[in-house]
Automatic annotation (TrEMBL):
This is L-glyceraldehyde 3-phosphate reductase. GO terms for molecular function: oxidoreductase activity. Residues 28-327 form the NADP-dependent oxidoreductase domain. It comes from the Bacteria. Belongs to the shaker potassium channel beta subunit family.
Length: 329
């Protein structure tokens, strides 16, 4: 059996600075939203984590509610960390989040100080960690004062339970306000995590610019639109795909004729570039240097290999970018 971790792992990956912080993230990060809950085989989850780390992927992204059931991804990850990564904690950036429903009653959701502080304590217990590297507020809360939520992030950083504070799903305007509050508190926002892909370009309408100006990093989640921006669904719905699973977040109805026509056009462009559509989709998100990392999911180690191989074919000509825009119409 080959030794773990791979001695050349840091030569395989590119590391990009998160905004104006001291932290560099791998250009490709791995999210544990799917394929790490209790309904998946732990040996596959283990294989995915080891494979990713072997290829220089040093950042694993979680949230309190990842599973199913909620919390189980953190528990399973904690077990794998203890068993396989004990000697490597300081080589890893581990993030978690709170902001969506986690437990019953008024204190298990949204953005109060009560919820955030209690949720992070639960996450640390589940993962068996003393601290996470990044703690996110998972979504903006329209009813809690932004100051309260940002003070809670500042508080957990000062407690040493998180090294950095971060935001996810905040639209540009609220993100700018939150970033300013955190800066004034002395706990600068490390990174923002928006959904960003060829199919979801809202961050181009101000958010990425805001982050760039504020010196805050940007990590794009679902850069493959959950697998739609790949060759996965070109010949129907494979039995082992996310659409065929009972995912609440991606079902057959979302694979409309119109969307699949766009996928086919993009697939042709990727073939002309000599790469897979998944690779072109990831390179496209990384074309903007203000994007620190693409946050992918994977059900198979070969998908991680595809992503890493993308790094060798990253550049786009103006004509290629225009052709992609046209294919997306
Ligand atoms: N902050 C938030 O609100 C939020 C929300 C969603 C996600 N996230 C984060 O973002 C992470 C990634 O989200 P995501 O899983 O939706 O990302 P994604 O990268 O858009 O989709 C991943 C899925 O695409 C398929 N895939 C990946 N590589 C492939 C390849 N080379 N060829 C063919 N298919 C491929 C796999 O699906 P199959 O299962 O079909 O193989 C894989 O599970 C999550 O784990 C989480 O950490 C954050």
């Amino acid at each position: 059996m080959s030794s773990f971790p791979h001695p050349d792992r840091y030569q395989q990956m590119e590391y990009r600075r998160s905004g104006r912080s001291g932290i560099k993230l791998p250009a490709i990060s791995l999210g544990l939203w799917h394929n790490f809950g209790d309904s998946t085989r732990v040996d596959n989850s283990r294989e995915l984590l080891r494979h990713a780390f072997d290829r220089g992927i040093t950042h694993f992204d979680l949230a309190n509610n990842y599973g199913p059931p909620p919390g189980s991804a953190e528990e399973n990850f904690g077990r794998l960390l203890r068993e396989d990564f004990r000697a490597h904690r300081d080589e890893l950036i581990i993030s978690t989040k709170a902001g969506y429903t986690m437990w019953q009653g008024p204190y298990g959701d949204w953005g109060s100080r009560k919820y955030l502080v209690a949720s992070l304590d639960q996450s640390l217990k589940r993962m068996g960690l003393e601290y996470v590297d990044i703690f996110y507020h998972h979504r903006p809360d329209p009813d809690t004062p932004l100051e309260e939520t940002m003070r809670a992030l500042d508080h957990v950083v000062r407690q040493g339970k998180a090294l950095y504070a971060a935001l996810s799903n905040y639209p540009a305007g609220i993100a700018a306000d939150a970033i300013a509050i955190l800066r004034d508190l002395g706990t600068p926002c490390l990174i923002h995590q928006p959904r960003y892909s060829m199919f979801e370009r809202t961050p181009e309408q101000g958010l990425i610019q805001t982050l760039g100006e504020a010196g805050v990093g940007c990590i794009a989640f679902s850069p493959l639109a959950g697998g739609v921006l790949t060759d996965r669904y070109l010949q129907g719905i494979p039995a082992d795909s996310r659409v065929a699973s009972d995912s609440r977040f991606l079902d057959e109805n979302q694979l409309t004729e119109e969307k699949m026509a766009r996928v086919r056009r993009l697939n042709t462009l990727a073939q002309q570039r000599g790469q897979k559509l998944a690779q072109m989709a990831l390179a496209w998100v990384l074309r903007d240097e203000r994007v620190t990392s693409v946050l992918i999911g994977a059900s198979k180690t070969a998908q991680i290999d595809d992503a890493v191989a993308m790094l060798a074919r990253r550049e786009f000509s103006d004509d290629e970018l225009a052709a992609i825009d046209a294919a997306l119409m």
